[in-house]
Amino acid sequence: MFDLVGKLQSKSLEETVQKETITSVLFHQTQECVDLVDEAFRFENINAPSMLSNRDAAIQQHVRESRVEIVIVELNLSQNVTKDMERISHLLPNSASVIVIGSEDAISTIRNLKEMGFYYVFWPITKQELIDFVRNVNSNRQRNSGLGKDRTAKRVGIWGTKGGVGATMLTAEIAFELSNLQKSSSLIIDHDFRGGNLDIFLGIKQFEKKHISRASLASSIDATYASGLVKKVNDMLAFISLESNELNELELKDYIRTLADQLAGQYNFILEDLSRANNSKQDLDYIANAYDVVVLLVEPTVSSVREAKRTLRALEIANSDARYLVVLNYTVSEKAASVSESEVKQFLGRDVDIVFPNEPRLNKLILDDKHIYQHDYPVSQSLHCLTSALLGQPENSDKVSWIHRLLKRGN
User: Fold this and answer.
1) pLDDT at 401
2) What would the CATH number be for the domain defined by 19-143?
3) Residue 158 contacts residue 383 (beta carbons within 8 Å)
4) Most buried residue among 8, 122, 166, 318 by CB atoms closer than 10 A?
5) Which residues pair with 238 in a beta bridge?
6) Where in the chain is the domain with CATH 3.40.50.300?
7) Predicted local distance difference test score (pLDDT) of residue 194
8) CB-CB contact of 191 with 272 (8 Å)
9) Over the chain (411 residues), what is each successive 10-residue block's mean pLDDT?
C-alpha cells in the first residue's frame, strides 16, 4: 500500500530550509543593539553573530582565534567614531569586512571611515535595513568589490641615518610589540640582501635567506607565490629575507617591493628595515609615496644628524604624504654623545619624537634571546611610546616627557 503520509514527511525533511551562513561577530556597547542584531539575523534565518563586549581585549582574542567574514562594531556610546576606529583598526584582520554602527550623524564620519575601508550604518536602524545592508556587504565580498577589498597593511619604514644606528634591532622590537602585545599581524621585510643580523634579533636559529634566481623574475607573482617566500616567527609575526647570486641589488629591491604589494592584504603592518648601508636617493623617492610612516633613526653624532636633515629635506621635496617620527637612539651614554638633544632639535628645526636612552644590558638581552618589550627598562618605555605613536594613540606624549625627566635625573 502506498504510504502517502510517510512520503510527504520524508520529502519535508529533505527540503528543510538551510540557514544562510555568514560568519560574523558583533562587538557591542548597548543591549539594545544586541537585541536588534540578534532578532534581525534570526528572523531572516541567518546564523546569528557571536556577541562580545566592545573591549580591546575581546576584539584581540576573538578575531585572531576565529575566522570572521563580517565584523560589526557598535559605537553608539562613542564620543568620536573616527578616532575610536583608528584606535582599534590594527586589531581587525584585513580579510574581514567591517560595519560600524554609530549615532554620529556627520558626512565627515562616513568619509573618514570609507577612507579606512569601513562601512558605516547610522543608528537607529530597522531590522530589515540592517539585514539588507549586511547582505549587500556579503555580496560585495563574493564579488571582491566594495569597501574593505583594498584594505591593506600600514607600511612603516625604519630608516637608519647611518650604519650601526640600530635600525634592524628597532624593526624587530617594534614587530614583537605589535604582534605579541598589540595583537596586530606584522610582516618584516629585510632590505639587506647580502647579510645582516635580522635573524639574531628575531631569535631564529640556523636561518638561511630565500635564494632567488633570475628565472624567478619570469614567474607569475601573486599572493600565494609571495606567501611561499615568507618565514613565520609566530602566529602573528613573519618576515621575508632574500638573497641572490644572479640578481643585482636594484633588481632585488624591485622584486621584494612587488612581493610586499602582494602580501599587503594579509597583515596589519609591514615593517621594512632600511639600514643606511642599503638605502639610496631612489629609495627615498619610493618611500615618499609608498609608505604611511617613516621612522627616522638618529644617533647623537654630527654625521647622523646631518644625514637626518638631508633625508627630511628629500622627503619634503618629493611631496611625501608619509608621517615622520624622529627617534634619537643613544648608542652611547648621554655624557659621551657628541651632540645633545637640544642641538639635534635646533639643527633639524623640529622636535625629537622619541628618545631611546642608552641601555648597557642590551647586548646581553640579545644573546639571551630576550627582548626589550618584555622588560620595564627606560628603553622599554621608549619602545612603548614609539609603538603608541605608530598606532596613533594619544598617550605617547606623556610617556616621552617621563623618559626625558628620567634621563635628566640620570645626569
Assistant:
1) 44
2) 3.40.50.2300
3) no
4) 166
5) 187, 232
6) 154-410
7) 84
8) yes
9) 53 51 93 96 90 90 80 96 91 89 93 92 94 92 72 90 91 94 91 88 90 83 90 93 92 92 91 76 84 94 94 90 93 89 94 93 82 90 92 57 42 40
From residue 211, alpha-carbon distances to 194, 207, 218, 246 in Å are 11, 12, 15, 10
Type of residue numbered 226: A
The CATH 3.40.50.2300 domain(s) of the chain lie at: 19-143
Long-range contacts of 356-359, Cβ-Cβ distance < 8 Å, separation of 24 or more: 356/166, 356/170, 356/327, 356/328, 356/329, 356/330, 356/382, 356/383, 357/330, 357/382, 357/403, 357/406, 357/407, 357/410, 358/330, 358/331, 358/332, 358/333, 358/334
- What single string gives the DSSP state of each residue in 34-94? HHHHHHHHHHTTBPPPEEEES-HHHHHHHHHHS--SEEEEE-TT-S-HHHHHHHHGGGS-T
* Residue that has been written with the C-alpha cell 544562510 in this structure: 20
Contact 74, 28 (CB under 8 A): yes
Nearest to 281 by CA among 256, 247, 317, 305: 317
- What does the pLDDT read at residue 235? 87
Give Cβ neighbours of residue 176 (< 8 Å, ≥ 6 apart). Answer: 237, 371, 373
Q: Which CATH architecture has domain 154-410?
A: 3-Layer(aba) Sandwich (3.40)
- Which residues in 85-121 are b (16+ Cβ under 10 Å) and which e? bbebbbbbbbebbbbbbbebeeeebbebbeebbbbbb
Could you give the 3-state DSSP secondary structure of residue 271? strand
Q: What is the pLDDT of residue 405?
A: 43
| Residue-level pLDDT at 13 | 46
Count of CB atoms situated within 10 Å of the CB of 289: 11
Taking a C-beta distance cutoff of 8 angstroms, is the pair 255, 242 a contact?
yes
pLDDT for res 294: 94
pLDDT at 149: 60
Determine the number of helices (DSSP H) and then strands (DSSP E) in the chain.
16, 15
**Integer Cα distance of 147 and 97 in angstroms:** 7
**3-class secondary-structure state, position 3:** coil
Tell me what pLDDT residue 220 has: 79
Q: Cα–Cα–Cα angle for 52, 53, 57, nearest 5°? A: 95
pLDDT of residue 214: 87
Q: Are 68 and 96 in contact (CB under 8 A)?
A: yes
